[in-house]
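Work package 3, deliverable 3.1, input record:
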Amino acid sequence: MTELRTLKVALLGCGNVGAQVARILIEDADALAARTGARLQLSGIAVRNVNAPRDVELPQDLFTTDAETLVKDADLVIELMGGIEPARTLILSALRNGACVVTGNKALLAQDGPTLYEEADKAHVQLSYEAAVAGAIPILRPIRDSLSGDRITRVLGIVNGTTNYILDQMDSTGAQFADALAEAQRLGYAEADPTADVEGHDAAAKAAILASLSFHTRFALENVHCEGITSVSAADIAAAKDAGFVIKLLAIAEKLSDADGGEGVSVRVHPTLLPREHPLAAVRGAFNAVFIEAENAGELMFYGQGAGGTPTASAVLGDLVSAARRLVLGGPGRTETTTGHVPALPIDAAVTSYYIGLDVADQPGVLARIAQLFAEHGVSIEIMRQTIHRDAESNVESAELRIVTHRASEAALAATVEAVKGLDVINSVTSVLRVEGV
Amino acid sequence: MTELRTLKVALLGCGNVGAQVARILIEDADALAARTGARLQLSGIAVRNVNAPRDVELPQDLFTTDAETLVKDADLVIELMGGIEPARTLILSALRNGACVVTGNKALLAQDGPTLYEEADKAHVQLSYEAAVAGAIPILRPIRDSLSGDRITRVLGIVNGTTNYILDQMDSTGAQFADALAEAQRLGYAEADPTADVEGHDAAAKAAILASLSFHTRFALENVHCEGITSVSAADIAAAKDAGFVIKLLAIAEKLSDADGGEGVSVRVHPTLLPREHPLAAVRGAFNAVFIEAENAGELMFYGQGAGGTPTASAVLGDLVSAARRLVLGGPGRTETTTGHVPALPIDAAVTSYYIGLDVADQPGVLARIAQLFAEHGVSIEIMRQTIHRDAESNVESAELRIVTHRASEAALAATVEAVKGLDVINSVTSVLRVEGV
């Protein structure tokens, strides 16, 4: 057998995921060499503090604070520092030096992906980032390669484990958001400052990446409409449950046509009602899943662990082995195709179904007036259900009205809700939530 | 913009899937060219009868009976004829001519894959076959590429839609196998001669392919232990349901270690009990899903349509675009890695849990004697449940005993069941079924 070539691997960052990547590179060196056709030699790990405690015991002499020098000498660079700088500068420097780069930095990709893709194209090297979306789940490669002969029409993703855990707890125990969040923090599923997760920012970055690959067009974070789960109440969850739905925070990227009011892609993150029999409804706890609808393939779902050091390291290593194989076999890097050129649509142009909860006066003719008003705004009602409550003491009756609409634009729905609020028979609009999968 | 290069695509076979592939190649020519960087020109369709009726209207001048000539002139060959010959000869001829080949021919791959892989390696061209397993679901590429830095430990697949439809019908309506099969035939989910599906042969070919890619070792059909669903009774399904299980026909490929009694891979197809809360249990009707356990990634599931012309065409086109991109960009073909060299284990060495139904005499001490006998054979019992039936007329009591074991080897289980049959308190062994996911 011929002597194997050695490829130098520089690791930037040694947190949760980085430490596991380093461990696997060392422990599985022989298996990785057999599969790659080259020895993947971990040449160093750049960190801020070489003496900080680590999840995994690693040779101390691998650690350095000099990331620049480490990158200059590497064939393959793994960036797991997170944040914009110095990650961005180091990745650009690695690409210019002809190194292949593997990163899990969703924030950087969503904010400044195009700069990185262009640099990789120019240098004919590979920039891979499977770990940036849905942790261990192989989702970006299937979208980019396996579905390259199909047309994706819609992507619905549960891509944030923290919020899925919180919503799942609220659904199964009836807890309020604050209590479920506290429990998630206690178990390590949520960070001390949970903003990026619960406000949907993390999911929005992933939505931008999913939309870009699915529709062959570069979408940035600013194209993503984002609503988190902080305003989802136990009452919302209970009402949804009662109506046969579960509430999930979904990252949605959807192609709309002229028939929907304008051609383009709607990219958004918001709490969404799903029928309990929908495949995504069964995704519990901190798991992730991405549901894809394509013209020819039909419905596909990809399910697995969306976070955690070891699972995410699996995605990083998959990218690393693929990039190394390419270096060994020769041939150009993969280029990002941006052949779609479809516009990003504002949230007003999004088209979906809605669930509307209304507290109404219990009078004859109320339902007819509300239905009439929806019809006037071009919003068609699929289900309308009224429940009468009688207060035992006061004997006063109140009525709760739940409406699920057919697909309508956000603009039409907003106008309808405004008009409904003006009706004298309406006490309050108790909730407006978007619905998918009906 | 520079003039695009043209790549000639020869299509062999124009059945269900082939007709859809031809349609998409013609209808989506511009989008495919944009993504590939070359025009994919359908140069001809080889069929047995050029005048046979087709699912799709296609230009009559594309059809030819001369497959050999068509193949000689092609850059890319799509083989969708099925069967061993002439498919095998035509694929080998295409590879020798330097053409990339895309096929969905699971029977040929399971029987003679190594010959084809070696020929593709020698010619430095790509041989792809995503459509051969689980139709539209991207599963082979994720296993081969995305998980290339991980170690797969187990694959459980629902890879035959016909049998999943039949078992699902039996589960939801209580139908007997024969009636559910007749219904599946009426709806077009089962063929007039359903042998290949219901006897598990189709699933076994797919199991061999999944095992080969997952464990980097070539497994052939003869390495796969295969049992179909023809002996699964309505009573089996009812008993499983009552105990919280669903019966699925699973293709299983599992790495066993010395601790299990011998290192190797057990590849098998058989009806299997799954807990109702297992992700695979929710795969209904004719859908397919593959559940993967990997050391680092943990549990992953891939779900979608496993058959049908248009969904399967999506997988074919994905392979075609990937191969064409490689031709455009240059660089060598992908080679199949066979770095594992793990032996295939006989069915006796397989290790799993079991469900055993026994009709026993209702006497004191029976449970203890049976438990003792299991213990003597090294098979540990997880659950043991006895139900007493009293015949209202005769007043005779009979007892039904249901046992779920911990993991044990097939050999140990078989010896246990033989010994149990010899007990005088046993009227009959009503069922022995394997269990996964507990």
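The mean pLDDT of chain A is 92.
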